[in-house]
Design a protein that fits this description.
The structure is a homodimer.
Chain A (H helix, E strand, L loop, with lengths): L2 H8 L3 H12 L2 E2 H5 L6 H13 L3 E6 L2 E6 L1 H13 L3 H14 L3
Antiparallel strand pairs in A: 1-3, 2-3
The structure holds a DNA duplex.
Pfam family, one (chains A, B): HTH_20
GO molecular function, one term (chains A, B): DNA-binding transcription factor activity
Protein name (chains A, B): Bacterial regulatory protein, arsR family protein
Amino acid sequence: MSDAHKVLQALGDATRRDMVERLTDTAMSVSALAAPYDMTLTAVGQHLAILEAAGLVKTEKIGRVRSCSLNPAGFAVLDIWTKARRSTWERRLDALGDILDGPS
Amino acid sequence: MSDAHKVLQALGDATRRDMVERLTDTAMSVSALAAPYDMTLTAVGQHLAILEAAGLVKTEKIGRVRSCSLNPAGFAVLDIWTKARRSTWERRLDALGDILDGPS
DNA sequence: ACAATACTCAAGTTTTAACTTGACTGTTTT
DNA sequence: AAAACAGTCAAGTTAAAACTTGAGTATTGT
């Protein structure tokens, strides 16, 4: 399974997408990450493992708490995949658009 | 379910990702699209419906054959989502990168 | 020292999504 | 007109993910 496929598979689940969106704003512990969801901490841990394996999230355990934050590497992979998946025609349009608009 | 979520859900499946990759190169009929997979035409049709609902593929039926091609709109949605999901710091780096590299 | 916190693990259950079956519609070919 | 082709539909089955349970470990607070 390629990196891009791992990333897309990971983001295929609604809970994991929500976790990623919440981590966009701020890093947090596993418990804090789990708080909004009606599921066990174990389940959240499993989602987290998938996100980590995909390179979307990185975690570090200090003492008894594991801090979770976004890992930009995963998003870079996704970006590259998306760009490659466009038709030749569309890529030409994009290049034109970038020139007209300038970098965002 | 938002557009970005539909797109990511759709691309969460390996068969659908492969279909998208094959449609990158050329448009084709449902049968041609189905050929490499060890599954029924019905199953392929179901995958196709999901890709179409996500805005990743567009299809047109002429006579008895349905032609399938990539729909760049879905990829644009994915691109926007990806960009938004990066940390503030990373987004600054991206902007700088774009300026240095110029449009791809 | 004891209790509470913050996870972690293996194994089993449940739910979702993928896939099949069998019958059917409309279109093109012979 | 009949047969083959290209796809579609509803309903059921199967396989894959998500999720839970009931434990256990290491760390921090009282």
